[in-house]
# Entry
Amino acid sequence: ETGVTQTPRHLVMGMTNKKSLKCEQHLGHNAMYWYKQSAKKPLELMFVYNFKEQTENNSVPSRFSPECPNSSHLFLHLHTLQPEDSALYLCASSPGTAGSYTFGSGTRLTVV
Amino acid sequence: KQEVTQIPAALSVPEGENLVLNCSFTDSAIYNLQWFRQDPGKGLTSLLLIQSSQREQTSGRLNASLDKSSGRSTLYIAASQPGDSATYLCAALPSGGYQKVTFGTGTKLQVIP
# Structure
């Protein structure tokens, strides 16, 4: 484990379902991120939280809703997703605005 | 807008070879550059972080260099092993203290026993 834990590891959901992804870090980092990784594409930044405040929303559709209750936990709430949303969703954290990234193992999401 | 390119996209080498992976970036105003490896279906594991004031970093059989003026970084792997097989990604963090890292598309490495 890297210090950033993501659950679940795999998720299959229908287009009408509502589910949540969870990310937890106990590294004392202040910044947390959600990334989407699709096949043959670069990592896409979705959201950035710095000291629990959202500082970046990279034009992500509203069917993805992040939540950061404290600097150790980050959620991604999913609803009415599309099949093209199937991807590996990665959470990361960093000490601050210019530190090294630590990634979780990811959640493999399949939308059917 | 920063663009990060990794060449080649895929590489296959026999075990024991020394190899170099390349990373190019268009905007030299970076704060640091980080190299990661990713195993299939898994998250990213940090390998080396080079601050903009540094020229290189070493960890075991890995050596990463950074040349900001030319917009290039290289990852050198000595005496490659089958366990090195993975996708290697580089990521450029911009100056200005704002966390918006740009990742390359990666180089998929296969080391053949």
About this structure: Chain A has no helices and eleven strands. The two ends of chain A are 30 Å apart (CA to CA). Chain A touches chain B at residues 2, 4, 6, 31, 33, 40-43, 45, 48, 50, 55-56, 88, 90, 92, 94, 97-98, 100-106, 108 (CB under 8 Å).
